[in-house]
Design brief:
This protein is of the alpha+beta class and about 425 residues long. It folds into two domains: about 250 residues, no CATH class; about 140 residues, Sulfite Oxidase, Chain A, domain 2 (Alpha-Beta Complex). It is built from 15 helices and ten strands. The strands form two sheets. The protein has a five-stranded mixed beta sheet with strand order 2-1-10-5-6. Strands 3, 4, 7, 8 and 9 form a five-stranded antiparallel beta sheet that branches. Helix 2 runs antiparallel to helix 3, helix 2 runs antiparallel to helix 4 and helix 4 runs antiparallel to helix 9. The structure holds protoporphyrin IX containing FE, ligand MTE and molybdenum atom (MO). Protoporphyrin IX containing FE (HEM) binds next to helix 2, helix 3, helix 6 and helix 7.
């Protein structure tokens, strides 16, 4: 269509690409081709689907419809799928976010290899051939840009490196996910038959038996992935897949321990909260120390009170009064949104349900929990009725048989099964139980 409109001049430009990557002869790898692209693509198809589902679940785990919880208040219709986050199984968030972050990291080599495998398409010449092709190229821009954006923001976030972000991580990563997934669904919809055909064109088992010397290019394809002028092989397809697999495995070993615990904990060298510093009952990960949070001994000392607000006048208790109430225990992990988690810790303290009763709101719809900490979005959180009423939901005073350390939230912190770590507020000062 464009050709017709622009006539002879365009035809000349179209038929003589500028030198370099715009010419087909520039790309000479003999293993680049639809089969390799399809193998990498099918891994990404499964992996990215899991990333998307666990990502959206992670957002739901915030209970963003409760006041003070929502990090992306402008989400509008994109929150259509939200549901009440359960407290059962208690390890749900630990699993969800461990999978999201670990899988995201492990897929990086696969994503890079996939982009390498299709890079000649970036230099397609002429850049615009028809309207349909223009639309497709724009959608590919959203696809590739969206993938790089989601992976980059995710990794920057778990490394606590926010400076390069132009806005709130939560909103960027949330909106980015929807843009990316839109482009991804379109892309998969268009390319799925081609992917299946390419996968069937060669046998994986045979490829894994073929060394470099016997490696031959795939037959020339109409889409221009296969090199027109292939170089002699320097690596087999088996070698390429092995390299990607080894990269992914290395990343797995260097990060997964932060969520799995056990002996892998010590190999989680790339995870900022992977290792355990210190020992004893309070010897498990601290995300933010009291010092870093600006919480002082004066705020948590003798004068500290827990204030309960509900029906009627507020009531206040000091720590000894809380310790004199019925004490309950629960084995629960801390599971951070950034993917790291502790193994189960034995927490003990007062049930949130008992505090709701003391506040005169045994049937509260939600509770707003506020910390003595000032000036941080992590200093408060809201919990929903199902979370208040779970018998394992505690205002913890002790952990593993000892008083909470200051860094773990002394005098009192919240712990709720299956809730994201960020809602397990430390140094709690006030709880406001509300009816609706
Ligand atoms: C296909 C790629 C990805 C998609 C579609 C995706 C999607 C999502 C979504 C929708 C959320 C919830 C956003 C929110 O809480 O506001 C989320 C949260 C998160 N994602 Fe991803 N994600 C992807 C890749 C990654 C990667 C590669 C990492 C890091 C290795 C990562 C790390 C995180 C973290 C740490 C959170 C929790 C954020 C928080 O609430 O604090 N994501 N993801
Ligand atoms: N007041 C307050 N509570 C807080 C935080 C905080 O910064 N301030 N961090 C939260 C986050 S993000 C996590 S993952 C957990 C970590 O708890 P821990 O440091 O005891 O392991 O505490 C949560 N409670
Ligand atoms: Mo966290």
């Amino acid at each position: 269509m464009l050709r017709g409109a622009l006539g002879q001049g365009w035809r000349t430009v179209a038929d003589s690409p500028p030198p370099g990557p715009f010419r087909r002869g520039f790309w000479r790898s003999p293993i680049r081709g639809p089969w390799l692209t399809a193998v990498l693509g099918s891994v990404l198809l499964v992996g990215i689907t899991i990333l998307f589902v666990t990502g959206l679940a992670s957002y739901a785990a915030y209970n963003p419809d409760l006041r003070s919880n929502d990090m992306t208040p402008g989400k509008g219709l994109l929150g259509f799928y939200l549901f009440d986050w359960p407290t059962e199984p208690y390890w749900l968030y630990r699993l969800n976010q461990g999978v999201h972050v670990t899988l995201g990291i492990v897929l990086v080599p696969v994503l890079l290899a996939k982009l390498w495998s299709v890079i000649p398409k970036l230099f397609d010449w002429p850049p615009v051939r028809s309207l349909a092709q223009l639309v497709e190229r724009v959608s590919l821009l959203l696809l590739v840009g969206g993938a790089i954006f989601e992976f980059a923001t995710g990794i920057v976030n778990i490394q606590y490196w926010y400076q390069p972000l132009p806005g709130s991580f939560y909103s960027l990563h949330f909106y980015g996910a929807w843009v990316f997934i839109g482009a991804f669904v379109v892309h998969v919809g268009i390319r799925f038959p081609r992917m299946v055909r390419a996968l069937r064109s060669r046998s994986l088992r045979d490829e894994l038996r073929t060394g470099t010397a016997a490696t031959r290019p795939e037959p020339l394809d109409e889409h221009g992935l296969v090199a027109a002028d292939p170089a002699p092989p320097t690596m087999s397809r088996r070698g390429a897949l092995g390299l990607v697999g080894a990269g992914s495995l290395t990343l797995f070993v260097a990060t997964a321990g932060q969520s799995l615990g056990g002996p892998l904990r010590r190999t989680a060298l790339l995870a900022p909260r992977g290792q355990i510093l210190g020992s004893g009952p309070n010897g498990f990960q601290v995300n933010k120390t009291a010092f870093a949070a600006g919480v002082t001994a004066a705020q948590t000392g003798q004068s500290w009170r827990l204030e309960l607000v509900g029906a009627g006048a507020p009531v206040a208790f000091d720590r000894d009064e809380l310790l004199a109430m019925p004490q309950h225990s629960a084995q629960l992990p801390i599971a951070c949104v950034e993917g790291w988690s502790t193994s189960n810790q034995l927490w003990s303290g007062v049930r949130l349900a008992d505090l709701a009763r003391l506040a005169g709101r045994p049937d509260a719809a939600s509770v707003l929990i506020e910390s003595v900490q000032r000036g941080s979005a992590f200093a408060n959180a809201s919990m929903r009725r199902n979370q208040i009423l779970d018998s394992r939901s505690l205002l913890a005073l002790r952990v593993n048989g000892a008083d909470l350390s200051l860094d773990h939230g002394f005098p009192a912190r919240v712990i709720v099964p299956a809730a994201p770590g960020v809602h397990n507020t430390k140094w709690v000062a006030r709880m406001t139980f509300v009816e609706a």
